Request: fold
Amino acid sequence: MRAMLELVRAPAALSVPGDSMAGAAAAGRRPAPGLALASVLMYWSGMALNDWADREADAVERPERPIPSGRVRPGAALGLAAALTGAGLATATLAGGRRALTVAGLLAGAVWAYDLGLKRTAAGPASMAACRVLDVLLGAGEQAGAAVPAALAIGAHTYGISVLGRAEVTGAARGTAECAFVASTAAAGLAAISCVRNGAAARAGAGVLIAGYLASTLQVQAGLRARPDPESVRQAVRLSILGLIPLQAAAVAGGGRFATAGALLCSLPLGRWLSSRLATS
Reply:
C-alpha cells in the first residue's frame, strides 16, 4: 500500500480539489465535490502512468522509485493508471453530466499525451499546464468563459513547476529558477485579473492570498539560485506543487467564498507534513 501511495504521489493530490473549486467560484456556482474527486482520480492516474512510462529511465536515475525498486510491477502500474482514468471519467459524468464528461475526456487525453510523449519534448511544460487549465474549467460548468483567467493563473504556476521538474535529476541550470519566477509572477497577475470584477471584500481577500502565494513561492525559487543541486530541486518541486493551494484559495476568495478558501488553506500544512513523511521515511 505504501508503494502505491508513493507511486501516485498521494499527498500532492491535496493540491488538486482546489482546481475545480477555483473554477466553480470564478463561474459563480457552488463547488461540486464529485468533480473534485474526479480531478483527484485523474491526477493519480497521471502519476501512475508517468512512472510506468519512465520505468527504464528511473531504473538508472531514480532506482528508489516503486517500479525500478521492484515494489510495484510495471503491469500493475499501467493497470492502475487505466482504472483510475476510467473511474475519473465515470465520476465526472455522475457529478456533471455530458458536459463534464467532455471536459474530463479532454483532460484524460491531455494527461496520457503528456506522459506518453509530450513530456520529453519542448511542449512538455505547456502540455502539463494545459492539464491544470482543463481541470479548472471542469469545475466551472456552463460558465467556463468566466473561469479562464483563474484557469490560466493555475496553468502558469504549473508551467513553472514543470520547468523545475525537468531539473530534478541533473540539478537546476542557469535560468531555471528565473523561468519559474516569471511563471509565478504571471500566475499572480492572472489571479488578480480573475477577481477584478468582484466586490471590494472579495478583491481584498484575494489580494492578501496572492501576496502570500508570491512570498512563499518566490522564496522557494530563490533558494535554487544558491543550491541548484538535484535534491534541492526535488524539494522545490514538492513545495511548488503544494504552493498551488494558496493560489487556488485566492481565486476562490475572489469569488466571495471565504469559508471554502479557508478550508483549502487548512489543507496546506497537512500536505507539507505528508509530503515530508513520504519523502523521508
Observations:
- The chain has a mean pLDDT of 91.
- The radius of gyration is 18 Å.
